[in-house]
Amino acid sequence: MSATRISSFTAGLLSRKASRAAGLASCSRTFSSTRLVLKETNTSATSPFFPATSSFVRIVEVGPRDGLQNEKKLIPTETKVALINRLADAGLSVVEATSFVSPKWVPQMGDAKQVMAQITRKPGVSYPVLTPNVKGLEAAIAAGAQEVAIFGAASESFSQKNINCSISESIKRLAAVADQAKAAGLRIRGYVSCVAGCPYEGRIDPRAVADVAKDLLDMGCYEISLGDTIGVGRPREIQAMLEVVAKAISVRQLAIHCHDTYGQALANIYASLQFGVRVVDSSVAGLGGCPYAKGATGNVATEDVVYMLEGNGFETGVDLKELARTGQWISSELGRPTGSRVARALLSK
Ligand SMILES: CC(C)(COP(=O)([O-])OP(=O)([O-])OC[C@H]1O[C@@H](n2cnc3c(N)ncnc32)[C@H](O)[C@@H]1OP(=O)([O-])[O-])[C@@H](O)C(=O)NCCC(=O)NCCSC(=O)C[C@@](C)(O)CC(=O)[O-]
């Protein structure tokens, strides 16, 4: 990282206290009988993809990346490409396509370049890719990525296991990635893992989540996705974590990313919606699991999220039946039934 980059990033960190205070001042919450209503007066940049309305929920489909990265048997590139194309055709406006990580660490993502070359890029659809370092970013740019996701963790042990460095080292590494991504005109999304618990350390202090999230935001991420990587959180814990994080970051720049290991994902998403979050990550057919979080099951199934949202007055733009068929198809390619209960119910009719 050049001296100029370090100093601009450090200046950003130093101004964190001041901007946190401003964020607090510009945002007030009131309780109605059933839901927490967020009154936003903060006009800072929000996501470029969706109108910040209270009834539209943007779904970030992570199945082709988070869903498939943990599969033991190598999945043919053409299957991944067909999955991504079908998800976009089902109305998803963000389909996380792959990750430019070390193939020694995650062999399943070793065909990232080929995946990006072969997908049909539908107008209006974003195909972000994960980039852990500058090497990954350069490969992503060469592959024509328009958006990248950088990822850190609120747990020291998980950071070491996942990306082989401490949290503070990761922040420096990711700042270099963000600087180069911005210079290349790419959009950047940020992830924080272990927001409710860590497979190695147990409970995680929400203030650690807020610190990493704010660092990623200061680097230029337009949105921070908060990952309950091992699915241990429960609604009140998720809301308590959001309370702390929202003191540092506008809720309009937060997304929720729930794994369903303990069957809490939909409840946690609903609790996040009550808090004002309007971006939800999910994985078709509930595919997935993290290679560095033993026992973690997949993300919440996108089909189940869409069904819940649409029954509660939210719009998603997703064709649920088409999505359910896509989930059933990829599950059969992987040799198992779909993990979406909604898809099973719909398709059995
Ligand atoms: C970060 C590193 C690379 C550090 O790994 P390292 O071993 O410390 O890196 P290194 O710089 O020493 O390089 C080691 C080797 O990897 C190569 N290498 C290095 N970087 C790259 C790259 N980008 N692309 C391709 N190759 C790369 C590099 O060239 C070298 O090759 P060699 O000289 O030995 O032949 C590694 O730990 C890594 O790739 N980790 C990624 C782990 C991962 O993908 N985890 C899953 C995604 S995160 C997640 O799922 C959570 C999330 C986001 O979904 C949210 C949630 O649920 O919480």
Biggest sheet, in brief? Answer: 9 strands, parallel
Strand content: 5-15%
Structural class: alpha/beta
Which ligands are bound? Answer: 3-hydroxy-3-methylglutaryl-coenzyme A
CATH-defined architecture: Alpha-Beta Barrel
Structural domains: how many:
1
* CATH fold annotation: TIM Barrel
Kindly report the spatial arrangement of strands forming the biggest sheet: 4-3-11-10-9-8-7-6-5
Number of strands: 11
Shape: globular
End-to-end separation: 57 Å
| Helix/strand order, N-terminal first | HHEEEHHEEHEHEHHEHEHEHEHHH
Uncertain runs are 1-52
Count of alpha and pi helical runs: 14
CATH class: Alpha Beta
The amount of helix comes to: 40-55%
Look at the structure and give the mean pLDDT: 87
Describe this structure in words.
It is an enzyme of class 4 (lyase). The chain is of the alpha/beta class. It has a single domain (55-347), classed as TIM Barrel, CATH 3.20.20. It has helices at 3-14, 16-25, 63-67, 77-89, 112-118, 134-142, 156-163, 167-183, 206-219, 235-245, 265-275, 302-311, 320-333, 341-347; strands spanning 27-31, 36-40, 58-61, 94-95, 98-99, 129-130, 147-153, 187-193, 223-228, 254-258, 279-282. The strands form two sheets. The protein has a nine-stranded parallel β-sheet with strand order 4-3-11-10-9-8-7-6-5. The model is unreliable at 1-52 (pLDDT under 50). Bound molecules: 3-hydroxy-3-methylglutaryl-coenzyme A. 3-hydroxy-3-methylglutaryl-coenzyme A is lined by residues 66, 69, 99-102, 104-106, 130, 132-133, 135-136, 139, 151, 162-164, 191, 193, 227, 229, 257, 290-292. Residues 66, 69, 99-102, 104-106, 130, 132-133, 135-136, 139, 151, 162-164, 191, 193, 227, 229, 257, 290-292 line the site of 3-hydroxy-3-methylglutaryl-coenzyme A.
